[in-house]
Design a protein that fits this description.
The protein has an 8-stranded antiparallel beta barrel. Strands 6-7 form a two-stranded antiparallel sheet. It is mainly beta. It has one domain: Porin (Beta Barrel), CATH 2.40.160.
């Protein structure tokens, strides 16, 4: 029994340092995420970057229209064009882009209405890894209201309206061809798929 215990103790001493050394290896640049945020494409990668335009499609839930009864929703599309590939902060992997597109809104059942919104947004993104980014979007949208009376708190609007956009978002690249997107803020929650061009 004693030789078996000695063999197990010796094997543990030999295997444990090897396992610990494997855990401490930096992530390779072959597509895996570097947990230290210091590898190629990470937040601290200040080398020159090249960003790609993106076409995105969204399903949204506009919080500003929940007073109409039912669940309002929107479908939309955006075209993202990078403007500053290396952003504003020299020590960070950031970028500035402009995103424009169209949203079609449908309101709830008790007072049905529909509108077409034409937004333009500025997006400042922080690229945490080659796959994962977070961003802030600020912008405005012109709304063309073509169904319903569009009353809110007993104040009825006209055919044209405008709104602000202020959202925080996340992007996660699944493959080179598909990126998942999520945004939360005003006018609401949006979930989408981006297709880099």
């Amino acid at each position: 029994m004693r030789p078996v215990v000695l063999v197990l103790a010796l094997a543990t001493c030999l295997v444990a340092p090897t396992a610990r050394a494997d855990d401490e290896k930096p992530a390779s640049s072959g597509g895996s995420v570097d947990p230290s945020l210091r590898g190629p494409g990470s937040l601290s990668d200040a080398s020159p970057q090249r960003r790609h335009p993106m076409l995105s499609f969204f399903l949204g839930f506009p919080a500003g229209y929940f007073g109409y009864g039912g669940i309002p929703f929107s479908v939309g599309a955006r075209y993202l064009q990078p403007i500053l590939h290396d952003g504003f902060v020299p020590s960070l992997n950031d970028s500035l882009s402009v995103e424009a597109g169209v949203d079609l809104y449908a309101l709830g059942a008790s007072r049905f209405g529909a509108a077409l919104a034409i937004p333009i947004e500025a997006m400042w993104a922080l690229h945490f890894s080659t796959k994962f980014s977070g961003y802030l979007k600020l912008g405005a949208a012109l709304e063309i209201r073509f169904l319903g009376d569009w009353c809110w708190a007993n104040v009825c609007g006209g055919v044209l309206g405008a709104g602000i956009i202020a959202q925080l978002g996340l992007m996660y690249r699944i493959t080179d061809a598909i990126t998942l997107r999520a945004e939360l803020g005003y006018p609401g929650l949006k979930l989408g798929i981006g297709l880099p061009l």
